[in-house]
């Protein structure tokens, strides 16, 4: 995993009317435009940061093509990008989000229908820049690098995919146009396919932007706990409870953590205050409580 | 056909086992769980989604050696979506139309419009509507 340190991601206001990113171009090679698009962004991030792609172009090809469909599903594009080491964030907010992401140096992949709904020709295009004065996007479109596409044509072919787009970023980079909840979700999906180290770097970066978001803190603390960074996990769980003492899941996990460190008295104090109206949560709380009463024997290392 | 199915079952069982040993800790997943508890049928369909996708992939000519890896990289929700909708989901490709394709396409469109009486391009067509 790349050694990207978290950095303050808050951007300046966007006034600049244009942006052009130097994204390496790879021809789509017929049915393989999804893997080409991923590779272009992977090479871009490799040139900009310490990110190193985990897969070769050949491996991306093999993981994305469905021969009988003659192309790649959106979900498989996302899954292959994760396997390559990039976190996939959904594009929200339509047209305006495209230019905002491009402005802060984030190229995007969009799905367009080059034809009409009754005769679809689906294509993944990579957006590499825009010019608000001439009303153009720059796109790596099929065989043409940095082709100029007018806003109006682009909008017409993009609306036919219900404005689907994805922002692929290496650990430590965050999209500008998403709220904390969706960012946590995207990072967690990356974490859950075995990329926890990179996920932690991104959670830590998000923490600089949203230090009081309890969902984010919960995800970060859990990731610390899973990777045996117990002191850090303890601190963050306690932060959550200082923001929201009724956070039953954080209370449960903190108690479990303390129990596993052999601090059963503290664990008991924490868990005794925890209740939840949700049956599933309550049953986890009960199980933890029970375990602590039994002296935390199972989990003491 | 049997090989990937077996491997997927194996992967699914490993995943379930891993969750058991982590039972007392609430997973981050809980943040995204739907408010309503899933029905038994939904749970079952989530469990078999990955196997269903594997079977579809085999039919669609995906390299069998990579099927498990590809499915393992999908979240549960994504696997469920693919297993339901693989036939209708769009598949992006270079997908420009070839010149021959375009010629055939234009021919068919004009033939249809001729038959509908909207055009009169060909000598051999007669409109099939409203004499």
Q: Would you kindly provide a brief summary of this structure?
A:
Chain A is about 50% helix and about 15% strand. Chain A has about 300 residues and is α+β, with helices and mostly antiparallel strands. In chain A, strands 1, 3, 4, 5, 6, 7 and 8 form a seven-stranded antiparallel sheet that branches.
Q: Which shape of chain A, going by the Cα principal axes?
A: elongated
Global structural class of chain B: mainly alpha
Give the overall silhouette of chain B.
Answer: elongated
- Helices of chain B, by number, come to 5
* The CATH topology of the largest domain in chain A: Cathepsin B, Chain A
Largest interface: A-B, 64 and 38 residues
Mean pLDDT of chain B: 76
Number of domains of chain B: 2
Range of helix content of chain A: 40-55%
Count the strands of chain A? 8
- Low-confidence segments of chain A, given as residue ranges, are none
Number of domains of chain A: 2
Number of strand elements of chain B = 1
Radius of gyration of chain A: 22 Å
CATH superfamily of the largest domain in chain A: Cysteine proteinases
Alpha-beta classification of chain A = alpha+beta
Question: Mind telling me the C-alpha Rg of chain B?
Answer: 25 Å
How does this structure look, described?
- The complex is a heterodimer of chains A (301) and B (131).
- Chain A is of the alpha+beta class.
- Chain A contains twelve helices and eight strands.
- In chain A, strands 1, 3, 4, 5, 6, 7 and 8 form a seven-stranded antiparallel β-sheet that branches.
- Chain B has two domains: 2-85, no CATH class; 96-131, no CATH class.
- The longest helix of chain B has 20 residues, at 40-59.
- Mean pLDDT of chain B is 76; it is low at 12-23.
- At the A-B interface, strand 2, helix 3, strand 5, helix 6 and helix 8 of A face helix 3, helix 4 and strand 1 of B.
């Amino acid at each position: 995993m790349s050694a990207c340190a978290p950095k303050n991601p808050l951007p300046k206001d966007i006034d600049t009317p244009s942006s052009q990113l130097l994204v390496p171009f790879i021809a789509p090679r017929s049915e393989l435009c999804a893997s080409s698009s991923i590779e272009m962004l992977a090479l871009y991030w490799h040139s900009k940061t310490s990110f190193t792609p985990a897969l070769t172009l050949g491996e991306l090809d093999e993981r994305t093509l469905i021969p009988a469909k003659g192309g790649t599903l959106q979900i498989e594009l996302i899954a292959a990008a994760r396997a390559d080491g990039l976190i996939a964030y959904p594009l929200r907010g339509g047209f305006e989000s495209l230019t905002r992401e491009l402005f802060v140096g984030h190229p995007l992949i969009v799905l367009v229908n080059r034809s009409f709904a009754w005769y679809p020709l689906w294509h993944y295009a990579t957006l590499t820049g825009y010019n608000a004065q001439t009303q153009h996007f720059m796109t790596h479109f099929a065989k043409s690098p940095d082709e100029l596409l007018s806003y109006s044509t682009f909008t017409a072919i993009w609306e036919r995919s219900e404005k689907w787009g994805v922002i692929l970023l290496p650990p430590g980079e965050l999209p500008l146009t998403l709220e904390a909840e969706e960012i946590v979700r995207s990072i967690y999906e990356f974490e859950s396919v075995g990329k926890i180290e990179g996920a932690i770097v991104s959670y830590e970066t998000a923490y600089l932007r949203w230090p009081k978001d309890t969902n984010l803190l919960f995800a970060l603390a859990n990731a610390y706990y899973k990777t045996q960074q117990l002191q850090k996990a303890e601190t963050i769980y306690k932060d959550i409870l200082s923001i929201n003492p009724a956070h039953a899941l954080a209370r449960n996990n903190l108690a479990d953590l303390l129990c596993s460190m052999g601090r059963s008295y503290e664990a008991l104090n924490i868990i005794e205050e925890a209740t939840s109206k949700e049956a599933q949560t309550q049953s986890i709380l009960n199980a933890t409580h029970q375990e602590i009463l039994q002296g935390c024997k199972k989990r003491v290392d | 056909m049997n090989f990937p199915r077996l491997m997927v079952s194996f992967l699914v069982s490993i995943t379930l086992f891993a969750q058991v040993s982590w039972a007392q800790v609430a997973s981050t997943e809980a943040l995204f769980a739907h408010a309503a508890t899933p029905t038994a049928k939904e749970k079952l369909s989530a469990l078999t989604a990955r196997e269903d996708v594997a079977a579809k992939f085999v039919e669609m000519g995906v390299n069998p050696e990579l099927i498990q890896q590809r499915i393992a990289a999908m979240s549960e929700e994504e696997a469920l979506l693919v297993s339901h909708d693989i036939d209708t989901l769009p598949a992006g490709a270079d997908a420009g139309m070839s010149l021959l394709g375009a010629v055939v396409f234009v021919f068919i469109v004009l033939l249809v419009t001729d038959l509908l009486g909207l055009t009169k391009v060909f000598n051999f067509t007669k409109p099939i509507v409203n004499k």
